[in-house]
Amino acid sequence: CPKSVFRRTIQGYFHQAMEMSSVSTVAGTKPENVRLGIIQMEVSSDKENNIQEAVRSIKSAAEQGASIVVLPEIFNGPYSTKHFAQYSESPVPGSPTFDALSCVAKECNVWVIGGSISERSSCGKLYNTCMVFNPKGSLVS
């Protein structure tokens, strides 16, 4: 199973943001100030509750003017390697975390950097994966 398919880096997200900023400058518009919402949250063993808490936190950050909201690492389940398999999911439509983050990004018109979740690959390996959604709710990385 190729590791590059599953590993994502924050450098790629910032590179994309820089490219977008350059496009906006080239188009003759002045880049706007960016307000980041950095989320801290207490994570429990209740995955559904963790996801809903993340959604509430994203909405709160957006209401306070954030245009980019960043969630913590392994926000949808306990941070322990013994729990990763149990809480893993694929970063695709239809999975609970994907659907919730996509929906709230679109609803609040913000970028969501989804911290990370435990992902099980088609090869059965576990990865720490970060999903990034644009303000239209589309997965961009």
Key features of this structure:
141 residues; alpha/beta; two-stranded antiparallel sheet; 38% helix; disordered N terminus
Strand arrangement across the biggest beta sheet: 1-2-3-6
Rg, alpha carbons = 15 Å
> What is the tally of beta strands?
6
Number of helices: 4
Shape: globular
Major sheet characteristics = 4 strands, mixed
The helix-and-strand class reads alpha/beta
What proportion of the residues form beta strands (DSSP E)?
5-15%
Could you give the distance between the termini? 19 Å
Walk me through this protein's architecture:
38% of the residues lie in helices and 13% in strands. It has 4 helices and 6 strands. The chain has helices at residues 10-26, 47-63, 81-87, 96-108, and strands at 36-38, 68-70, 111-113, 117-120, 126-129, 132-133. The strands form 2 sheets. A 4-stranded mixed beta sheet has the order 1-2-3-6, covered by helices on one side. Strands 4-5 form a two-stranded antiparallel ribbon. Helix 2 links the parallel strand 1 and strand 2 (68-70). The chain is globular and about 40 Å long. 26% of the residues are buried.
Short recap of the structure:
By secondary structure, this protein is an alpha/beta fold. It has 4 helices and 6 strands, in the order αβαβααββββ. α2 (47-63) packs parallel to α4 (96-108).
